[in-house]
Amino acid sequence: MGTTQTFPLKQETDIVVIRQQVRKVAEQARLGLVSQTKIVTAASEIARNALIYGGGGEARLTGTQRDGRSAVHLVIIDHGAGIEDLDKAMVDGYTSGNGLGLGLSGARRLVDDFSIRSAPGEGTTVELWKWR
Amino acid sequence: MVDRIPILKMGRYLLLSIQVDMHDQLALDLQEDLTQQIVKHRAKGVLIDISSLEIVDSFIGRMLAHIANVSQILDAKVIVVGMQPAVAITLVELGLSLEGIATALNVEKGMRWLERNVDEDLSLECERGDDPDLSAEAGD
Ligand SMILES: Nc1ncnc2c1ncn2[C@@H]1O[C@H](COP(=O)(O)OP(=O)(O)OP(=O)(O)O)[C@@H](O)[C@H]1O
Ligand SMILES: [Mg+2]
Question: What is the pTM of this model?
């Protein structure tokens, strides 16, 4: 427990690999089926954003503990253009592309702890937690 | 990785079962394939089985909505069957309503839905007088 695995995020098929690995770690952490599904779905949204808007990056995945509960910790990092107005980007329905604008706001609802750091020109880091 | 989702033709229906974790391009290809097959076979209904899908994210959700829209324009009914409960719960929390997409619990119920809805359509055509004999009978 506690070892971090790093996965590249350079192409669409990497999103599939990340989903599968998050599922595996969520199962190992003995999250319930709904919780597993939620963290995998959130991971998929955030990974796609990092690939499409951030030009790719990597995912760091850890099966760990949080306040004595077994947990999944996922950090997705890109070094793209970053997000200028984070508050705006987090609003349901906001998209700069042709999405539904649900990725960020939806992912936040699906996990137990969500944080995002982004600065123009410096890329974006999103951290997701789901625990038992 | 799989590079195509097979689409089966059964009478006036098209059937497909998504059994792999689709990457985005695969979903886009499926969308296009299905549109072409609907036209080619003049399909009246499409049944999409997603019982093996472990997640539906915004991309897959958008694909399903798109398929439903295009099919409507092409005059084919679409039914999505077998969504796992955990997937449905997650979709709602993600904020995807999938409204406008008909769903059924399983393949049997989905087929029955298609039979009902496609037949209704055919009888409507009769009422509108596409078939002169029948419309004369139903006239009064
Ligand atoms: N990693 C990122 N780098 C730069 N901009 C981003 C990043 N992630 C999100 N954004 C910006 O935030 C907006 C909102 O993202 P969100 O995922 O909520 O919606 P979307 O990707 O546009 O649509 P959807 O996810 O519903 O398909 C994006 O349109 C994009 O402008
Ligand atoms: Mg997105």
Answer: 0.92
The tens digit of pLDDT for each residue in B30-72 reads 999 999 999 999 999 999 999 999 999 999 999 999 999 999 9
Mutate to test the interface with A, among B87, B94, B96 (most CBs of A within 10 A): B94
User: What ipTM does this complex have?
Assistant: 0.94
| CB of B28 less than 8 A from some CB of A | no
- Domains in chain B: boundaries: 7-138
Domains held by chain A: number: 1
Q: Is A83 in the pocket of ligand 1 (CB under 6 A)?
A: yes
- The model's pLDDT over A90-100, given as tens digits with 9 standing for 90+, comes to 999 999 988 88
CATH number of the domain enclosing A64: 3.30.565.10
Q: Which one of A13, A36, A100 has the shortest CB-CB distance to B1?
A: A13
Say which CATH topology domain B7-138 has: Transcription Regulator spoIIAA (3.30.750)
Residue by residue, DSSP assigns chain B as -------EEETTEEEEE--S---HHHHHHHHHHHHHHHHHHT-SEEEEE-TT-S---HHHHHHHHHHHHHHHHTT-EEEEE---HHHHHHHHHHT---TT-EEESSHHHHHHHHHHHHHHHHHHHHHTTSSHHHHHHHT-
The residue range of the domain holding A109 is 4-131
